[in-house]
Amino acid sequence: MNADTGFAAASALKERLVVIGNGMAGCRAVEEVLARDPERYAITIFGSEPRVNYNRIMLSPVLAGEKTFDEIVINGPEWYADNAITLVSGDPVTAIDTAARTVTSASGRVEPYDRLLLATGSDPFIIPVPGHDLPGVVTFRDLDDVDKMLAAAESGGHAVVIGGGLLGLEAAHGLSLRGMSVSVVHLMPTLMERQLDEAAGWLLRQELERRGQTILTGANTKAILEADGCVAGVELEDGTRIKADIVVMAVGIRPATALAKAAGLAVERGIMVDDHMVTSDPAVLAVGECVQHRGACYGLVAPLWDMCRSLAAYLTDAPQGYEGSVTSTKLKVSGIDLFSAGDFSGGEGAEDIVLRDAARGVYKRVVLRDNKVVGAVLYGDTADGSWYFDLLKKGEDVSPIREALIFGQAFAQGGGALADPNAAVAALPDDAEICGCNGVSKGQVVGCINAGAHSLDAVRSTCKASASCGSCTGLVERLLAVTLGAEVESGPKPMCKCTSFTHDDVRRNIVEKGLRAMPQVMQELHWTTPEGCSSCRPALNFYLLCAWPGEYEDDQKSRFVNERLHANIQKDGTYSVVPRMWGGLTNPRELRAIADVVEKYDAPMVKVTGGQRLDIFGIKKEDLPAVWADLNAAGMVSGHAYGKSLRTVKTCVGSEWCRFGTQDSTGLGVKIERMTWGSWMPHKFKIAVSGCPRNCAEATIKDFGVVCVDSGYELHIGGNGGIHVRATDLLTKVATEEEAMEMCAAFIQLYREDAHYLERTAPWVERKGVDWVRAQLLDDPEAVGKLARRFSYSQKFSQDDPWAARVAGERRDLHAHLAQVRPLYLETV
Amino acid sequence: MLTGKWLDIGPTTQIQPGSARTLPVAGGDEIAVFHTMRGEFYALVNKCPHKAGPLSEGIVHGDTVSCPLHNWRISLRTGEAQGDDKGCTPTIPMKVDAGRMFLLREAVIGPVAQNGVAA
Ligand SMILES: Cc1cc2nc3c(=O)[nH]c(=O)nc-3n(C[C@H](O)[C@H](O)[C@H](O)COP(=O)(O)OP(=O)(O)OC[C@H]3O[C@@H](n4cnc5c(N)ncnc54)[C@H](O)[C@@H]3O)c2cc1C
Ligand code: HEM
Ligand code: SF4
Ligand code: FES
């Protein structure tokens, strides 16, 4: 179906402007030209789509059923008629002859031009996986695509959207409103990662999941599956298969440059244009998504409007150059408020201001550099999006309103921006509510400060302000400062600079509020940074792992290299490997395997460690899986010499050989190591079992030590070698091996559940007091059993040899090089 | 725009977001290719300016990486040490096109010349 509105004859004497592309940029450019000089050009527009010019961005509401096509038409047939524009629709241009200055269309029509404007937009990118060309695989670009999706949605069923960016999520939203069950498959860990940070991406994900969509992140599509010649499902790299009656590919767009390239115009990613949108051929201009200007290609409409203005100015002899655009994004999904603009990847000199309101599901982040707004991400409350965007574009110095910036325009410009934030707090009336959770007013807080509560902690325990969610901590601290001047006593130290909560508060909240994911902890506890830092991330990862065994998925990105590579990095970048030797025992087979590894991989050193193990040095990361394979084959597993985990159980020879021995210390040591290996701890944890009080295994400087005596087992806790040597405290004495093991498990679990991340048992026992530890374990006869059972439950999920998994091919990417490169000079000889 | 020969080093999916992979150079310094959580790609010589720690094994934050040996923070964009630390790691220009990564061929030779291997 093609049409020709034909006005050519009437305008034979004017300059001929031919436009390729009847889309958003092409028609806007024409509008801008007409607005400046309606008489100058005889205009012909070619469009591949068999229809008039419509608002492409509103295809999402059309898909969702919130708009009809008629409502999104920008220029109807009368516009073309009124302006004497010839529209050739449904007939794409197939060739440009820049020498003859003509274009040729698919139907064979040849149209001469004086000026040619390319506005061909973009082509959706299709990942070339097997099955990508099956019927039922659609893209999301024009009305035909929407029609295909609507046809599929009529019979309900399953839709898979590949790509969790703006387009993909709008497609998913529409299809889900149309009654399909929708899964979104996204390659990156965060939805819309180009526009959102982890925190906002997580909130978005929660909301979409609440609405019934299945969101799969970190998911790489391997193939599109077929049944009866049609699409039937999607298979992911990890083997997961998802049923699908329709697959929407929304993984990105590429500027439509084929025509320009064939015509010999300069093309890189897009068609190269100068500041007046002129291509390498002076008679040919280009505008819209198909162009590349100063190295940038755009995928949003706002820059197109700027481009169209510069283009029209140039075509009507009043040039004003285009200088590039800063863009902002909103997601058009009803009920979800999301805004993003500029750069928020952090880095040099960038400062984050973050505001979280867990109760309202709000996350706001403004990024400053040199006191100027350079980026903003808003979720849940986007009212100030345009204000931030405006500040960003103007590049204004915001230091005068910095303190109030995050609270929004009304507050910052309405007198909230007092130079001294304390003054703002002082100015609050007495009945102003400070703590929403516990309903505490300013008057009450000040009253309790005057009555002697001179620290945050004291305020929390007397009038309960900031004792629950903690979001008013800043206000309470200001009140303390205003009321007391310099006499504020500093409270317990917060976990890190990202939060005002202490380690204890964080751990308590994780359990009480049932927080199960890192971004959730940060949102609920009002983290002041978007993604935490290298000090709180590993801590939260451990706290969550400890609180929700079997449920929480370990976050490898939050682990230091040693725990990611299951070996100890050395100063030359090689690794050392320590296989487990249960209780310090070994045998010829293990020793042979170790000897073979040392020779095979040319390890420069083997060392006997203080924990009764052999440490093989100088292994390259790419050789680690092979080394582990050889060690696994001899029955050895990871020794966790690299982890905040159970390191070793050191034993002495005990009653089996030693003339002083009272009990089988070796046997007990092996049993304890079998019970405790693989467990993640706040810090490293060492155990020893000595067969008599001569204590050859040095059990009294270990985290947990057993000293055997004639009548049973003395159990010691909280010892440490190193800089601050600390001898253990005697916890208790038990009669049987079973009791010793149960107490060991219980003590470990108490430490795991209570200590701060990176706190060894020695400082922990000193901080809490030995009596407290004893009371926890000994006062209630049930306590030990309960703790030990929790420990053994969590061990179910941690006693898999991480080496074996790597040998079997898990995370090959961490070990293998990408490729080997030969430098240029080697190639030229 | 940089001109020169681009060396295809394979699909972007080979590097998980928030991590890096390595590319040994025959006779030269190993290159680390980073993929940030935001989906950006950077290539640097895999040597910390402090004591040559392998940056590829550090924790990636925004567009910086913390060296695994002594925790210096290095900018992935410029290779420069952040904060009070001083030093700079050479960067290698790279681009991503249609899901594949490319290094600027001419830049790969840089470290070799420094080591005096090339003429
Ligand atoms: C579903 C959807 C939602 C979007 N939402 C937003 C949003 O919320 N905000 C935002 O800013 N942007 C959004 N966008 C992006 C926005 O629509 C584009 O940036 C804009 O349409 C680009 O305009 P353009 O004229 O360059 O390309 P297009 O509008 O694509 O126009 C190009 C036209 O040229 C035609 N054409 C191509 N080759 C030829 C040829 N050889 N001969 C003749 N005709 C040809 C094409 O068929 C097409 O009609 C969205 C896009 C989609 C698909
Ligand atoms: C600040 C403190 C410490 C640091 C940074 C530290 C570091 C290390 C490292 C990196 C290793 C592993 C070597 C390798 O395999 O590559 C190691 C092993 C060891 N450390 Fe420490 N250590 C510390 C404190 C201690 C203390 C206090 C003791 C003594 C009680 C100790 C005893 C040992 C022993 C015995 C080993 C051998 C591994 C084993 O088999 O357990 N370390 N230490
Ligand atoms: S601790 Fe006692 S039993 Fe063990 S080896 Fe020493 S002397 Fe013998
Ligand atoms: S080598 Fe990188 S910080 Fe020391």
Q: Describe the oligomeric state of these chains in a short phrase.
A: heterodimer
What percentage of residues of chain B falls in helices of 4 or more residues? under 10%
The total beta strand count of chain A reads 39
Which second-level CATH architecture of the largest domain in chain A applies? Answer: 3-Layer(bba) Sandwich
Q: Greatest contact pair?
A: A-B, 48 and 59 residues
Q: N-to-C terminal Cα separation of chain A, in Å?
A: 59 Å
Mean model confidence by pLDDT of chain A:
91
Largest sheet of chain A: 6 strands, mixed
Radius of gyration of chain B: 14 Å
Strand order of the main beta sheet of chain A, please? Answer: 1-6-3-2-10-22
Shape of chain B: globular
Topology record:
The complex is a heterodimer of chains A (829) and B (119).
Chain A: E1 3-4, E2 15-20, H1 24-36, E3 41-47, E4 53-54, H2 59-64, H3 69-72, E5 73-75, H4 77-82, E6 86-89, E7 93-97, E8 102-105, E9 110-112, E10 115-118, E11 122-124, E12 137-139, H5 143-154, E13 158-162, H6 166-177, E14 181-185, H7 198-210, E15 214-216, E16 221-227, E17 230-236, E18 241-243, E19 246-249, E20 253-255, H8 258-262, E21 271-273, E22 284-286, E23 291-293, H9 301-315, E24 328-330, E25 338-342, E26 350-357, E27 362-369, E28 372-379, H10 385-394, H11 402-405, H12 409-416, H13 421-426, E29 433-435, E30 440-441, H14 442-450, H15 456-463, H16 473-484, H17 503-512, H18 518-524, H19 536-547, H20 561-565, E31 568-569, E32 575-577, H21 588-600, E33 605-608, E34 614-619, H22 624-633, E35 646-651, H23 665-676, E36 685-690, E37 704-709, E38 712-717, E39 729-734, H24 737-754, H25 761-768, H26 770-779, H27 783-795, H28 802-807, H29 824-828
Parallel strand pairs in A: 2-3, 2-10, 3-6, 10-22, 12-19, 13-14, 13-19, 14-15, 21-23, 35-36, 36-37
Antiparallel strand pairs in A: 1-6, 4-5, 7-8, 8-9, 11-20, 16-17, 17-18, 24-25, 25-28, 26-27, 27-28, 29-30, 31-32, 32-34, 33-34, 37-38, 38-39
Chain B: E1 6-11, E2 19-23, E3 31-35, E4 41-45, E5 59-61, E6 64-66, E7 73-75, E8 91-92, E9 94-97, E10 100-104, H1 105-108, H2 110-115
Antiparallel strand pairs in B: 1-10, 2-3, 3-4, 4-8, 5-6, 6-7, 9-10
The complex binds flavin-adenine dinucleotide, protoporphyrin IX containing FE (HEM), iron/sulfur cluster (SF4) and FE2/S2 (inorganic) cluster (FES).
